[in-house]
Fold each of these.
Amino acid sequence: MKNFKEGIALLKFNLSSIILFEIIHKIISTAILAPLVYAILNFSIDIAGLNYLYSSTMTLYFTKPSTYACLFVILMVLAMFFLINICGIICAMDYSKRGEKTNPLVLLLKGLFNALRVISPRNMGIIFYVLAVLPVTFSVMISGSLFGIRLPEFFRQFIKMNERAVAIALIIYVAICIITVCKIFALNYFTLHHFKFHESVVLSKKVMKHHTLGIFLGVILLNVALVGIMFLLETVFSLAAKGVLSKFISSKALSFGVDIAAEIIFFVIYITFSIISTPLIYSYICACFYRYEEECDHEEVSERREKRQEDIEENKQKRNVARRNSIAYGTMLVFGLLLNGFYIYLSINDKIELDIYYSNRATVTAHRGDSKHAPENTMAAISLAVENQADIVEIDVRQTKDGVLVLMHDESLLRTTGVDKLVGEVDYDFVTSLDPGSDFSEEYAGEKVPTLDEVLEFGKENDVFYNIELKPEDYYQGYEEHIVALIEEYEYQDNCVVASSDQDALRKVKMLNPDIKTICIVHVIYGNFQDMEFVDGYSVRHNFVTKDLVSKIHSFDKEIYVWTVNSETKIKKLLLLDVDSIITDIPYEAKEIIYNANESLFTDWLGRLIEEY
């Protein structure tokens, strides 16, 4: 408790400078880190010989030595930025210990100069040290960020396939973290007395010899308390906001109001705790350091401490504190003006797009027909989709044993017809006996599995635009050729697109008839995949779609379809991103949402602003 109180005193003495330092550091880090990390990832994909990361390329990506080299560079860059932060805070606590005021610019420069010392081969170990103490020095920032992370589906599959290796890696990392925290004073010696990394670790171990458990538990408990309090406050204030809103807002608008209030509250609390948590944790560590260092009689430490004190006294006489602070704050003001000027320049030149209206050009694609109100991939679902004003009807095509093309999403007939057989192992005569409608509803009892021939004939008569999804299997014979032949027979080249996740199938379709538009279905996380010559567009899962992705695809004069989207909020977000088609199970409702989108422009814009920032 005594160490904690002393730490609070150290923090309070230079609190304003420390908070400003934290804010400046985070702004600069965000501005530099994001583009730098993306650039390195792009480079790693390029030198791995890939165009993009996709479920089938992830394993290949991680077999390349260059991948690990680039990931190592990313870790180095991240560690450098974290090291600047920690070194700056340690210097701030040292100023407080001496009873001197400082300013954020001095802390930033001192943090930077100390971090640059890792360039020496004898100090490289400090990089790994910083990565090992991240869980306890940046716990609030990490825990808050984790709640917003959604791992891509194929990345989760990759982890699932390598569960044992991932588990072992995590156990090793946790063990390294514990060992490192038990030598937590190493950074103090490294920063304040300029010892080499190895020397700093040895000195830290010596000072903490009889206090390791107490300091370790103190650091852990402080982290747990900070994270716990942050989420407790967020919950309490969110519930309070809900109670207040319920008295003044109608039940129809209450949900939206509560969501906005909760976002605002969590944002304010998270930012506040992110700024103050690391200085608070290190104020405790530094208080322990100053207290226990005095108990350790080490000749070289004493000599360096005395020399450092002499240098400090000499500098005090030479410097003009008022002038130094004026220069520091003046520099920050100029830096802020430059940032604002740069932002204005980008805005004027359309480098930054501010979406303040909904584009209503996106078409609505009915997923497997109107599959919410009729059995999927049936004539009933297709007819209902047309009736409900869908712009495009998406269908899935498979091939029977005797070569007939039928509409069916799964290769197994079990889910939709109750028959445990594969489409490719039965003849068409058997398929005609199936009833995909009875399990859906008695209203559709007796509904048949249609052929692609029947569907194209219906489409020709009713002016239906189809998204024909190919589902090739290794044992299908002449599958792509048969589909292209039917499209040509009905002269449907201008009224359909052919989609598939199988690139070979799309390549074959394009070779057979270059006039048929092809759509590649991808589970994209990252990379440059937009320039496939045999592809005219991409169909992407909605949670992977970003403004940058849409812009890149459009820059190649290609289209982007997004699947499968059934909520108003997600549909509106995609309208803002200017996607070309929204694939949905609710075509009629989606058309209404798009038509009426701009009526709720202001409240939606406010909600989006809160969510993004």
Amino acid sequence: MRTLGLTAVLLAGSALTTPALAEGPKPIVEGKPLELSIQMNHARYPIYDENWPVEQQAREWTNIHLKDVTVGANMRTDENSGKTEALNLMLASGNIPDIVGSSRIKDFVNQYGPEGAFIPLNDLIEEHAPNLKAYFDERPEVASAISAADGNMYYIPYLPDGKYGRAYWIRTDWLDALGLDVPETVEEFEAALRAFKTQDPNGNGLADEIPYFVRQWPELVRLVTLWDGRSSGSDTYHDFLPVDGKMTHPYIGEGYREGIKNLARWYAEGLIDAEVFTRGGSARDFLLSENLGGATHDWFASTSGYNSLSSEIEGFEFKAMAPPASISGKRIEEHRRIPIKPDGWAIGYTNDHPVETIKYFDFWFTEEGRRLANFGIEGEQYDMIDGKAIFKQEFLDQGPVNRSLWQVGAQLGARGYFQDYGYEIQWSNEFALEGIDLYDQGDYLVDQFLGVSFNADEQKVYDKHWGTVRDYMLERQQAWILGSADIEAEWDDYMAQLDKLGLSEVLGVMQTAYDRQYSN
């Protein structure tokens, strides 16, 4: 440590290829293993584990041994600021390891990299990392998106694969019981939810159905798309939105205003879970297993798995449906897998072995390294069948696949690697695959905002105003939906208050950074 002064779908999201090593991995260093210190923080695994089987295999192949020096392992990841308390503690201590891996690392390294805390990676990649170079050459927009204001890249990101994340889901057995078709428009969707509320589709004689529910309350706000609003520009909740090259925020749009007004009406009429802001992550599990929930917006793979409840609830069927057409006839799915996460790893500025370290980063983009990062250990978690990594059935039967992979050191977001969607499609059931095909046919996805990087002066403006602006936006949003305030009556005052709090200044620095970053 240094001191600071099984189908075609399986391949659908993975068209990009990287140069493969002809005879398998070769050591990066010969002779005595090279030890590099690492700090790794992530909400799901708060410390680097030298005993992860994946890490043991990487050690054997690369002859580079990472040694854990993580500080602040028990600290909570701060998802709102984009920085973790642990990273700030590390910086304050004056000690920066050879490698720093973390969730939400992008803003941190792009602020402190230009100040000298982290090594710029552009030349190292160009000269010593052929697999990383191939990736960035094929996807230059990714290189632009992760670069700091000075034009340098300071971290290698976790790069998700595949297109689809969340979808609309509805109890099709309830629709059948009430003689209803799958909704095609926002008006038909509302009618179906009202029927769920009033016509006892679960057949227990009680008016206990919850027509619409979500696990994360911002997924409720996403319904403003049905009135031609937007809730975010990316897969991050409440994010900014570029429109024809101009930066704005979804929560000041007319479609958002109309959407919130109607969501408040739905809430007042009991079409939305009364506990939508407080029920939390258990909503899907509880409301479906109790035969109470009617519709939601959630992930393909995990939500489709609830169809196993058909063994307990007669006729239970929960299927993906196409996004209902909005009031103007538009069908969009706002959520998709963003191609870049702000997670990944960087090289501390006094690392004495930057060439070996970038080669180590590059290893995870080789054929063998990528497979190791995604699937774990051959013969343990998966077998190679017809040239593809196929999970063993006994591994799939252990429980949630992501959790099992994290436990062996695979699928780690605080590692810079390129995900392979083939790992997820293997535990997606027929309901998920049917839904993905439905969304493929409809082409409903919208472009994602990939973020910006500020210089020091821009960062000061953003930090000064954005937290307060965002808090005010969300406070009014919740008040309007719950009916304790009227969005129509307050809208002009709301916009004036946002201006007083500094939204225009925030949008100004966002625009400057956006123009600089994406001008080419």
Amino acid sequence: MDIEKLYDQWSTKLYFDDATRKELLAVAGDDAEIRDRFYRELEFGTAGIRGVIGAGTNRINVYVVRRVSHGIAQMIVKRGEKAMKAGIVIGYDSRNFSKEFAMEAASVFAGNGIRVYMHSDLCPVPVLSYSIRKLKCEAGVMVTASHNPKEYNGYKAYGSDGAQIPPEDSQVITDVISKITDYTKLPKFDYDFFVRKGTIRILDDKVKKSYFAEIKKVLVDKENLKKNAGNLKLVYTPVHGAGAKFVPVILKELGFENLYVVEEQMEPNGDFPTVNVPNPENRDVYDLAVALAEKNGANLTLATDPDADRTGAFIKSANGEYVMLNGNQIGCVLLEYILSAKAKTGTMPERPFVVSTIVSTDLAKAICDNYGVEYIQVLTGFKFIGEQIALLEEQGDKKFVFGFEESYGYLAGTYARDKDAVASCMLLAEAAAYYDSIGMTLLDAVEEIYKKYGYYAEMQVSLTLKGESGVAKMAELMDAFRAKKGDVVKEEISVFKDIKTSVAVDCKTGEETAIDLPKSNVLYYDMPCGWFAVRPSGTEPKIKFYFGICDKTSMDAAWDKAEEIKADLMATVQELLK
């Protein structure tokens, strides 16, 4: 890329608005800053695009949104008039510029003759996914950067099944947008004109009401819930995001009368002023919520991220302290509750299956084995869970029961194809109400699960490598790990799996076998005591390291072993980075 030429064009041409030109002229002479803004295009993949908000090709802005939307529009146009009439539905969350980017995308699609349905207000990811299926659209777009810092925004593309687009569609879109090197050649379209014309249709509350009706169908024991919901005290925070008008509504409808919301975090705000990062994986997100829970003696504290697809929880313990559950614990307590209730009530479907990811806990498999439920592992990314629903239920004769990933994402129905924090809050509240009725908390339930199946300790470490040099460093580090195969920690590695090459190597015999997973830049290490995995993030400038250890005697023993292996592996990382 000719960085100097691009900078000159973006900072001087009248095609770009005043704010864009002013922002770029303010960094004139700063070669490093200019290079970082223009050394590449934001990469479009199956998770769409995500980047820092700002001017430049390596930032997210209306021009980058216009370019990507043009690529998706061309894909739909090539499918013909039927696809264009089926149209596309667009949602957006509370992040800065989310609505503006959504309107830009809508304008491009309408300008290309594609029918557009636009959500009138903040829209959770699961509602967008459901909308695509409900309206029988050809595609969908969600403007969000999920749980990333406030500086970010993003753009997720969805297929007609409500799942994020598959690799083959991503490649079609990439092929189109890669040919667009001059942004000024892309036409501008007028959003208000297409609204008046009716090509862009603003959705009313019918879809929202229909969504609420659908998620109520995944409740496990409605009669028990009616009796016990009123006894539970709940705290909820949307962390300034899209869950504000969804989670409290469904909880109140189900009889959770003692619901307290964190007022300081109920208003949408893309600056997320009360938290460092709006991620329910982070403890500081709950400071206000836990304070409110302590004041009111709440049993359960729930939080959702800005686009309401991730769910976190704090539980009141027996001594009155509030303890955070991790993503695997939430997934497994929901899984045990759902399967045990279905087994008890005789509502377990024939040929049931559960799906989780290769970096989530192995405890899920132990739970499924206990109830005779098929357990399927897929790559990281909820689209792969959605793919299994399509393959095994829609096209086969099996029944999906539950899916989750360790990064706080859960789904218990087939109405959507992405993780659903609204329904997950509902199910966690139902489970908490049930356990409360028998004198237990969700913490007690987690401990009972460990006693029953073994103690599983999981942890994750992220190494941030920003900028152009960081991209190169990540590639070098992954190459170095591949070269070392199983020789990366002192602990015995039984099998080394390179999912990018689809090869598993027995570290004792050297025998190679094929891996039945789509190719992905992931390295996976099996050990007698558990596993660990290494992969670059698809949405952030990070390499992530996952660890999962099982011990039959105690959580302390499992945790100590995980810490030992983690320290050993990170020492290898530091050596390789020298």
